[in-house]
Amino acid sequence: MRFGIIYSEKDFAGANIVNQLKKISFSPQILIIKLKKETIFSKNLNVKSFPKLKNLDFVIFASKHESEKKTPSLCLHAPGNWRDAKFGGKSGEVCLTSAYVLKYLFKELNKNAKTIKEKFEITLESTHHGPLINTPCCFIEIGSCEEQWKDPFLGKILAKTILSLQNFNSNSAKNKINNYLPVIGIGGPHYCPNFNKIQLKTKYAISHIIPKYVLPLTSKMLKQAESKTKEQIGKVLLDWKGLGKYKQETLDLLNKAHLKYEKI
């Protein structure tokens, strides 16, 4: 897989990850783009501004993660905005991503972080924030304070996870990627305990996640999630309890769109 990395010079975690990546295995074939602005607020991330993007299959944003609780965490998610765009990108638009790549990276991240799982939360996040970019992408993040952002051990874990994409092959039986079933997730909290388990332990490969706090679901959200997944979606997974009062409304939209679904 041809992949590149984008980070901001203002981001301690992004710089940490890239520095560790260069120590492990610096390859001139891996495109690394350093931005002056924060990644989520960056614009014009396109072939006109960065011509080498046209040669890539996937882009990884190496970034910090911030949370009110300051929970030590390593996170993975697709970017985009289901509603407004307070944190970069464009209102009502999400980025193209790959269900296969997200599943692969999440499994690799959990494997590489196995020695710190008792102290760190290793988690998917629902789709959120900017920037908007046409190349398939995701964010991989260190959270949630400066001490962790600068920690070289954590940077190395994420660098190893990113570099594992050198071995990614969607047609390879070795990693069982060709047996995955691409899906989108709807419901539940921003951090996705139910979807985390599914991404790790089942055949389902989750791309975009639409959390409870942006519901009610709209046809536009559904179309965005489906069209901005590189693979053909086979089903929608519903965090049933996590839909709250929007259960029937969500089912009605899915039935109208003729999409199969499964309650989890």
Task: Explain what you see.
The protein is globular and about 50 Å long. The strands form 2 sheets. The protein has a 6-stranded mixed beta sheet with strand order 2-1-3-6-4-5. Strands 8-7-9-10 form a 4-stranded parallel beta sheet. By secondary structure, it is an alpha/beta fold. The mean pLDDT is 95. The chain folds into 2 domains: 3-167, AF0625-like (Aminopeptidase); 177-263, 3-Layer(aba) Sandwich (Rossmann fold). It starts with a strand and ends with a strand. α1 (12-25) crosses α4 (152-163) and α2 (99-112) packs across α4. It has helices spanning 12-25, 99-112, 146-149, 152-163, 193-201, 219-227, 247-256; strands at residues 3-8, 31-35, 58-66, 73-77, 121-124, 137-144, 181-186, 204-210, 235-238, 261-263. The chain contains 7 helices and 10 strands. α1 (12-25) links the parallel β1 and β2 (31-35).
Highlighted features:
alpha/beta, Aminopeptidase, Rossmann fold, four-stranded parallel beta sheet, globular
Spatial order of strands in the largest sheet:
2-1-3-6-4-5
Shape: globular
Overall pLDDT score: 95
The residue ranges in which pLDDT falls below 50 over 5 or more consecutive positions are none
Number of domains: 2
State which percent range the strand residues make up. Answer: 15-25%
Under the CATH scheme, which class of the largest domain? Alpha Beta
Describe the SSE topology:
Layout: E1 3-8, H1 12-25, E2 31-35, E3 58-66, E4 73-77, H2 99-112, E5 121-124, E6 137-144, H3 146-149, H4 152-163, E7 181-186, H5 193-201, E8 204-210, H6 219-227, E9 235-238, H7 247-256, E10 261-263
Parallel strand pairs: 1-2, 1-3, 3-6, 4-5, 7-8, 7-9, 9-10
Antiparallel strand pairs: 4-6
Helix pairs in contact: 1-4, 2-4
